[in-house]
Amino acid sequence: MPSAIRITELDQLTDRVDVLLCDVWGVIHNGVNPFPLSVETLKAARARGQTVILITNSPRPASDVRLQFETIGVDPDCFDDMVTSGDVTRQLVREAPRAIYFVGPERDRMLVDGLDVALVDAPDAGAVLCTGLFEDETEKPEDYRALLETFRERDLPFICANPDRVVERGDRLVPCAGALADLYADMGGTTRIAGKPHAPIYREALARARAIRGEVDTGRVLAIGDGVTTDIRGAMDNGVPSLFIARGIHAREYGEGRATDEARLHAFLERAGVAPSYWMEWLA
């Protein structure tokens, strides 16, 4: 498997890239604070004529993510459009049985606003919609095993609105809906997922890019992210070159203080079975 090429500045790729599909959590912000250098880098890319589509596994609609940007101070001028896992998951919800049991924090229930569904108690459900853990600050995925077993016994489809296993929140990692989806699949349950690394969110992101700039050559698209099983695997599976941001959720695997041990990084990527086209410490 070829080794990723290290770059130090995104503008090294200007002549090769027309469209940037950029992850959000871990690249643009950590859930609490924005990364100013990353924001300015994307603004500069747009000024050079590149199109920036944010592509995030947030289980919320893009409108809610935009509000979060306002709250924590992410400049909206750093992107042209945004697609969330929540946006594309709504289609899976439309195709599911109407009676749905919701797993996730109360704030995420807006995901079903405007859809012809009824949120019901677990015994009455024909499907499960998961946006995360009820209390991700205190719970862990294993706490849900007994509940998931009742769903598996009834062969309920498990719709996962956020395929991420963990996400940064400040300087901590907290579990996400993807960890519950993994557990359910390991138990023999059926999962339905539209976010990264799966194809629906990439189709929608590229459609948004085409709406802005016309025909798009996927060979001149660059997916940027810090998650190997979502951002990098998704780019590979969907035929898009990728840029791995090392100082994200996997930094503990190869970090030495605030520097990356390059040999350990390449060994980590090989173990993960992924081959990003490029890598850099931060988006700069």
Automatic annotation (TrEMBL):
It comes from the Bacteria. One of its GO terms (cellular component) is cytoplasm. Keywords: Hydrolase. The keyword Hydrolase applies. It holds the Pfam family Hydrolase_6. SUPFAM superfamilies: HAD-like (SSF56784). One of its GO terms (molecular function) is phosphatase activity. The keyword Phosphoprotein does not apply. This is HAD family hydrolase. It comes from Hoeflea olei.
